[in-house]
């Protein structure tokens, strides 16, 4: 472990300096909470109540729901329209700690509210809805002993379907105040200690003739004497995964159906009742700001490879054995629909009976990737670069997936902290690297020695069937490029799971962080215990929350550095303008009216997934006034999509007397609009 301590010296220095100097709220500025400790849900709620009283003209509290444990879910509304039922301005919804197991995310929500209210420009023409804790029952587990990371609320649920409920939970057998792990020697065990640090465990590598020694359990006993451990602990539903998108039924913590608990149901209803919401942020364990949403989920349909059923193929003049992209099918459909009927992805998907989209739309990844690069640059400019473990991927049934895939909203997430990676010294190698491959031409790649290519493929963990000769032939045939090989290799490394024979990188990072930064308080060394049913066992392992909750001394510095980035993204909300109008007399009192509409922001309206789902409602151009007749066009014209930083032209033929005034209103339920007046025949 000596090497690991040395490797952490810069990390420790970074956090110390960040804590001392990086505060975004000035030392003299009063804040709602003391961000040097974590706060219970009731304390978090009380802090928002104080803000609502202090800023009564622009802040208002909403009681959203009551958890099974009788704890309130509250929302703080901020903006100049808090007393208006019908909102004219767009809104941003911020959901904190939806699973209840990320304490810093609730602190971040209050910190954000502090920042918003400290500067009027943050809510000028914008409404904020901030919910600091979506799962207060689970959040309370952090403040109870024994300490256990459990995302379930206090709803009673008979997990093992016997005669009793919540009768077989965890037990703090060694009395240290933490629920850790037990390891017991067993002929059927699959785990062995890591040679370099026997506190760590890894799966035995059977391909190398290794045999497992231990079985691992969570700390506890068989309370109901049915031969199983803690299969029916207290609590019921993880609110954070009780939402519709990719919801899985019959899981231990997901709930009976989406919205089966008040916390998630009332939240979905609130958002449905507030169509002005134009963007959401989820503060928790994922980070779309840092790592763009990833695909890779296996769904029922690939929108780039759609097969048209035989019963429709003849109608479209298509080949039922061939795969088509969505854009190709849309072009096939256009000639056979009535004039003026808009063919969208949603129309095609419904007509062909396609399944749900389960991976982010490539058009939306454009702005996600752009923001990610800008965020990394922002952190670099702040001097806060650090090589940390990746944030968790979004879970099926999560709030953020529902927000993006169902509501069609630009959806961002932030996690604020993960364990720093362990930086081990590596021998210098002269082998091939991905960076070199990305710069190579096909000819340069084909000139390499086979051994060098083979060593590279082995080093990145390429599948065994991905042989060197096959790769060379693919490059020769134009089916693959060196850059594409490097891209695939990098993805393999990102998606790689801990292998047999190697320790889990996350667990290695946790132990190193515990040793080097928090004086060993994050990992319990294994010690013997005489278990009533398992016999001689050892109790030890990671202390709950060490892997996702930084020490309280880091809270202020981490939040002051990262929370302000939310404002940078919010600045990019769709901003609609009437760029130009043009009126030309055609004769006999008939005029041609042209209007150019622009989205001045980078984020499109709607998103690509929103366009497919037809959510939210489309943008409208509304013509109004007296004594004019439309000869072509409509009083209310829908704009199905307006890409970021682009404009579109719309044309009408109007019959009117000179001097009449026509109002042109550009309106969206969740975006800033615009309005102009034109006078027929000119003049004011």
Structure explained in plain terms:
The protein has a six-stranded mixed sheet with strand order 1-2-4-3-9-12, with helices on both faces. Mean pLDDT is 87; it is low at 1-29. It folds into five domains: 39-142 and 239-295 and 361-418 and 561-569, Zn peptidases (Aminopeptidase, 3-Layer(aba) Sandwich), CATH 3.40.630; 160-234 and 524-542, no CATH class; 306-352, no CATH class; 434-495, no CATH class; 574-679, Sandwich (Immunoglobulin-like). By secondary structure, the protein is of the alpha+beta class. Helix content is 28%, strand content 21%. The longest helix is centred in the middle third of the chain and has 20 residues, at 362-381. It starts with a helix and ends in a 5-residue tail after the last strand. Strand 21 (661-668) and strand 22 form a beta hairpin. Helix 2 crosses helix 18 and helix 3 packs parallel to helix 4 (103-117).
Primary descriptors:
684 residues; disordered N terminus
Tell me, rounded to a whole number, the average pLDDT: 87
Largest sheet: 6 strands, mixed
CATH architecture of the largest domain: 3-Layer(aba) Sandwich
* Major β-sheet strand ordering: 1-2-4-3-9-12
Q: What is the CATH superfamily classification of the largest domain? A: Zn peptidases
Number of helices: 20
CATH domain fold name of the largest domain: Aminopeptidase
Which percent bin holds the helix content? Answer: 25-40%
Determine the structural class based on helices, strands and strand pairing. alpha+beta
Q: Number of DSSP strands?
A: 22
Classify the beta-strand content into a percent band. 15-25%
Identify low-pLDDT runs.
1-29
In the CATH scheme, the class of the largest domain would be Alpha Beta
> N-to-C terminal Cα separation, in Å?
80 Å
User: How many structurally independent domains?
Assistant: 5
Radius of gyration: 29 Å
> Which descriptor suits the 3D outline?
globular
